[in-house]
Amino acid sequence: MNESRGDYTALLFDEGHSGDAAVLDRLRRDPAVVFVDRLEQQRDTLRTLVPAPDPDVLDETPVWAYYSWRRTVVRLLGPAAFRLLRLDRNRNKVTAPEQERLRDVTVGIVGLSVGHAVALALTLEGACGGLRLADFDTLELSNLNRVPGTVLDLGVNKAVVAARRIAEIDPYVTVTLWEDGLDVESVAEFLDGTDVVIDECDSLDVKVSLRREARRRGLPVLMATSDRGLLDVERFDLEPDRPIFHGVIGDVDVESLAGLGARDKIPLVLRILDATQLSATMAASLVEVDETISTWPQLGGEVLLGGAEVAAAVRRIVLGQPLASGRCRMDLDGHLDALADPPRPHDLPKEPADREAAAAVSRDAVDAVVHAAARAPSGGNVQPWTIAADDDGLTISLAPEHSTAMDVGYRGSYVAVGAALHNARIAASAAGLLGTVTVHDGDPGLPVATMTFGSGNDRELTDRYEHMLDRTTNRRPGVPRPLDDRQVGLLSDAASREGARLCLVTDRDDIATIGAILAESDRIRFLTPTLHREMIGELRWPLLDSVETGIDVRALELDSAELSTLALLRRPDVMERLGAQDAGQALGKSTADRVVSSSAIAAVAIPGSTLRDYVRGGQATECVWICAQALGLAVQPISPVFLYGVESAELEQLSPRYAAPLERLRKELFDVVGAKGGEALALVLRLSHAPGPSVRSERLADRVRRRIS
């Protein structure tokens, strides 16, 4: 640790203090020292802020800041006024209370090439109040393609260069340096008092040691890698048993990593970065290391992008906003390749000039209702319906040929039809077409529900229209955060409005119990040949398959290691071997992990098991889903194997080997969610605080018919 802070931090002096005044007098007598006084301009701008600062802030004692490496003294506002004015343009992307929370955070950064950009972004945004910077290296001319230093900094320690830049932006940020860098022995000392850890160093042994010690202390670790905007997040604060580097390098020996040369590091680096995801230019460059280039390349723009990514992630962690462990890529070239014209604003519709124009408007409204119905969710996105409409009304029929084994008695299909009906009601209300709705007792293939178009509307339904169009499945892991009383009340009301009852589970132990139940259900699904075949058959691989039905594998939100494992889980012979051993406990781990990361589990309970009950349950489920997403929650439906198996004989048919465990699991789930005697469950929803989904499921046009009357 460096104790000589004057060569990289500003020395602050209060002219009203006799000792400080004497130092300032000596500096003024030094002809090589420049004094800069722009205090009145700062105060004038401070007075213009909205809302007006408190009088004690306006009257705060100013300071003189001496920058020894510049031989310059600058007069500045006091700490509260300075921070208020400097960060005013943050609001309200970062609110004032949030800025106060960020001020109490200390961030440790190891490696000050990419790390310099990180420190710069954090300082500019006021995303921390303290920084610990570690790097043994000095700035060289070859570093100036990516490190925001200058030729005046050549030969200066990289951590010192960064600290000076920080001090010149905000002298009130507390900065501590480790100019000798870190080794495996000094990692623990560096992490003392650190809240968030940023790894941007090149030493693999330090990278591993840093993560192990951070995991032991429950500290999150972030890493930006300057190729295709890769950002890694390891939330050891939320997941104390999480494997380092997401488990991609296994359990490595730290001693064997020390002293590896650039070429020797490449195999491990490729495992960490996922060789299949590298840009072509980076991959080609790695082949040339020690041949035509000395080490892997980095571009200044990509380094600066990494700084922005990390600063955004730090804010989320500190402010308790959703940020799951994992990785993402913010690929600038990929986005630039996808440039497209923005959508142009639509003119408001004019009054139709004649009956033909009026009919066209009517047809547009009917098409909107049909489109809304087709946007409804269904198990495996099989879309088990036929939707037909003309100018008089809409009919939704069940298409039994699109059912699966888990859709016992077509109960899941009836839930999907109910969701489609709810969407149609919303769109019809928004278009002023709402009329009589009838649910029939027809057999599969016959109409299940009809809606006659009228001239009515329902404000509650209309208010859901935009949220209904935005509704989507989000399988991302979440950050457990309690629901407030208002959210709980609105979700419960959404279910009851459609004739169902919401069983909302928020207790952490109960959620963990549900996670274990659903994980075991998933294991049984993998190990039952028919269920496994249908589950894998639902998956769609972009570029190879049409994604208009089924589940786009990108929507599973799997990292590269999980996707690689999926190649094994798809194989029937592997499942057969696991089934023969009654093994595969890890098959449901992903489900359990996601459930445990949830803020709540919502089960939609219906009063019975008739066709009408399940259609009602589908309408209630869609209503709850739309409401939850409007409240900022991520929603994932979970269908345990036993969900629609009401009778023991039905469970026996589903999975002969596991019928008894399925019956037990069904009872356990009903008990923990608080379902009452005689009730059935339409669907189970996982509610969480998580980033948005990677993709949105598409729909198949040929399940919809528009009849022109």
From TrEMBL:
Domain THIF-type NAD/FAD binding fold: 88-227
Pfam families: ThiF
GO biological process: cyclic threonylcarbamoyladenosine biosynthetic process
InterPro entries: Nitroreductase-like (IPR000415), ThiF/MoeB/HesA (IPR045886), ThiF_NAD_FAD-bd (IPR000594), Ubiquitin-activating_enz (IPR035985)
GO molecular function, one term: oxidoreductase activity
PANTHER family: THIF PROTEIN, TRNA THREONYLCARBAMOYLADENOSINE DEHYDRATASE
NCBIfam families: PRK07877.1
Name this protein carries in UniProt: Rv1355c family protein
Lineage of origin: Bacteria, Bacillati, Actinomycetota, Actinomycetes, Mycobacteriales
